[in-house]
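yo, ROK family transcriptional regulator is done. seq:
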Amino acid sequence: MTAPSPQGPHGSPGPHGSQGPPTPRGGRTQEEIRRSNLGALLRHVHLNGPVSRSALAGRMGLNRSTIMALTAELTAAGLVREELPADTRRAGRPSLVVRPESGRVYVLAFDVRVDRLVAARVGLGGVILDRREAVRRRRADADLDDVVGVLAEFGRELRRETDPGSVCAGVGAAYCGMIRPADGTVRYGPYMGWVDQAFGDELAAGLGLPVSVGNEAHLGALAEHERGAGVGFDNLVYLHGDVGVGGGIIVGGRLLGGDGGYGCELGHMVINPYDGRPCMCGSRGCLEAEVGEHALIDAAGRSGELTGREGVRAVVAAAGRGDEAAAEALRKIGDWLGIGVANLINLFNPGLVIFGGMLRDVYPGSAEHVRRRVEANVLLISRERVRLRVSALGDDATLIGAAELAFSSLMAGPLEALAHMR
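structure:
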C-alpha cells in the first residue's frame, strides 16, 4: 500500500484562514483548504503534544474562530479532546488545550531487524502503548511465512488488548533491506536472504489490514527528524547501523527517496576500493563492510564470540575498561566512519549527522577520529555549522518511523481516513 509522502516536522503550514474571496481558477476549493487545515492541526498535536488553541492559531496562521471550528470537528471525530490548561491563574479567559486521543486512536508498527522482530501498538501522539518482541536466532535464510506468522500473531494480540471503541488507524512496517514502496515487496534483504519477497502483501493478508512498508533507515531518518535529535533541522543525514549500515537523508524537510524509492543506500558508498573488506552486495570496501558489526568485532579480535548488538556493546565496554585491542578497533572503525561522513557532508551540506542503531553505541568511542576526518576532509564552509549527534530515539527510532508511516494517511485526511476505517 503506497503511503502519502511524509511532511516536515510540524506539518505543512496551512493557508492564512479558511475565509476569503472565492477560490481563483486552478486554486484550491474551500473544502480542500478545510481538509488541509484539519490534517495540519492534527499533525501539530500529534507531533508536539498538548497545545493551546491560541498557540495553534499562531503556528498555523489561522484566526481563533477557524481553530475553534477545526478542533470541534476533530473532537467530534474522537481524534482529539479539549480541556482547561493546568495553570488557570492567569488573567483573562484561558485558551483550551488540545490533546491527542492517544488511548483511542492507534496504529500497529512492526520492525523487522536482522536478529529481532518487534511489534508495538502506538497511540496518536507517538506514545508506545504496548509492545512485543521475538529474538531470531538464525539470521540468514529467514522463512517469509515464519516471520509474517510471528508478526501477525503479535498484531492480533495487540489488537485484542485494546479498549472497546478503539480505532486502528493504520499499519506500518520497517524492514532491513530495499523495499518497493508501491507494495512493500522486499527487493533485496541480503542479511535475511530475501530477494523479491512479497512481505507487505503477506503481512496484510495475515492481519486482514492494509500495510505500508519502508526501509528501516529511511524510516529512522524520518522519526529522528520529526521526534528525535533532528527536530528543527530540515537538512540532515541519518546513519543506521545494524549488521550492515543503512541511511536516510532529509533534504528541505523531505526524505530523499531516489527514482524508485531505493535511494540513500549509504552503506554501499565505497570508501576503501583497493584492499577493502568484501561486502554482502558483491563489492569491496563499502562503508558497511568497513564499519559494520563484523568489521568491529573482527578488528577487536573477538570473532566467534558474541554477535549482534550484544557483540558490539561487548567491544565498546571492553574499550571503556582499557582493553587496547577493543580501543584500537574503535579507532579504526572511527577513521573509516569519518571518511564516509566527510563524503556525505561534502555532498549534501547537512546541518546534522545522526548516528543510530549500532552506530549509536560505537560513535562515542570513535567520535574523536570521526571529527578528525571531518576536519581534514570536509570543505571549511560545509563543516562550519554541521553537528554530529547520536540518535535521541535509541533502538526505537525505526519502530517509531514505522508508526509514523502508518499514521500518514490519517494526517493527510483525518475525517476521510477515519470514516474508511470504521
